Amino acid sequence: MSRVSLEAKSFEQRVRHFSKGMRQKLGISVAIIKDAPAILLDEPTAGLDPKAAAEFLEILRELKDEGKAILMSTHDIFRAKEIADRVGIMKEGKLVVERTKGEIEYEDLVRIYLNYMREEV
Asked: If phi over 0 gives left and psi between -120 and 50 gives alpha, with beta otherwise, what is residue 43?
């Protein structure tokens, strides 16, 4: 829990009293404790302030550098582009495009997303 920057006082608190950011950090700490080879995240930065979101993404980078596989669903395409090795865009439950970090490095991901949302599936 220290690794993910949860304060020592939180070690004695009930989870129901945790903020959204603290709960996200707790989830990552459980994955770290279990030494999970893969981590699945659903909207991990939703509801986090910019500082907490940046800290959370730094933890994900560290885990990625340790060889952990991370699958994250998010509406935050800016953070997805920043951290992902591969980005997929889904429409109506179907994967409509998948690009590598290199392929989107100089692309406008918002434009790509909006173009696919306008097309028929």
From this structure: left
